[in-house]
Sequence to fold (147 residues):
Amino acid sequence: MKKVFFSLLLTFVAAVAMNKAVAQVETGAKIEFTKETHDYGTVKYGADGTCTFEFKNTGTEPLIIANAKGSCGCTVPEWPKEPIAPGAKGTIKVKYDTKRPGPINKSVTINSNAVNEPTKVIRIKGNVLAAPEGGAPVNNSGAPTGN
Fold:
């Protein structure tokens, strides 16, 4: 009888401890994006390279984005500096320099207090067409000829 009682007591204590651990994981800010990749497709040289990523704080506490950093200088993110309340939405705007012809495959790393993903990576992809030919004639020094 003592063994059965001890086994039941041990099972009960373990169940309570697991519930408490699960409850702790579920509290805090959580970040959920509507999309994690933006595909520009094929864009013209010098076109508008701005896109937005919408997210929502699905957690129980304010979401604070501490930093967002592009994988290179050609990818510049803007993010909300104020806390995002539970249930509220926000956007991260990413501007890509489309004066760089060729394939786009860049990322933005977001650091926040989100318990589900404190470091989150979103991506942009596509292709920038070559610069159009033409324009002012150029002399050997690289300056316009003035014709």
Q: What stands out?
A: The longest strand covers residues 102-112. The domain at 36-128 is CATH 2.60.40.10 (Immunoglobulin-like).
